[in-house]
Amino acid sequence: MAFDKDNIIEQIKDASITDLNDLVKAIEDEFGVSAAAPVAAAGAAGGDGAAKDSFDVELTSGGSAKIKAIKAVREITGAGLKEAKDMVDGAPTVIKEGASEEEANKLKEQLEAAGATVTLK
């Protein structure tokens, strides 16, 4: 069986966002990889064991009140309604990268007040 990348690209173009999200998760599980941006790893590798000065705010769950979480994500990121909904539905998702400790804690409080579950990395 020949590898037909053009056919795969056409199928991806026609897929819905949820199908693509499922595809990414399946690829992550199958190959043991992560689709997360490697920016955080590069920042951590340069550290010398000192206290962390930048954090990634990761939305781990939208919670039961997803509408409130979507509104909070829109306010934080400036994303449109569809993009914010995709972030909440696709959790875990990094909402903000490279935030200071103070900013990260503020964003965490804001998202948790909306009913979301948040992790600082």
UniProtKB/TrEMBL annotation:
Please report the stretch or stretches of sequence annotated as the Large ribosomal subunit protein bL12 C-terminal domain.
Answer: 55-121
Q: SUPFAM superfamilies from the xrefs? A: ClpS-like, Ribosomal protein L7/12, oligomerisation (N-terminal) domain
Ribonucleoprotein found in the keyword field: yes
Read off the Pfam families from this record.
Answer: Ribosomal_L12, Ribosomal_L12_N
Instruction: Answer whether the UniProt record assigns the keyword Ribosomal protein to this protein.
Output: yes
Question: What does the similarity note say?
Answer: Belongs to the bacterial ribosomal protein bL12 family.
Q: Give the protein's recorded name.
A: Large ribosomal subunit protein bL12
Q: What is the species of this protein?
A: Nicoliella spurrieriana
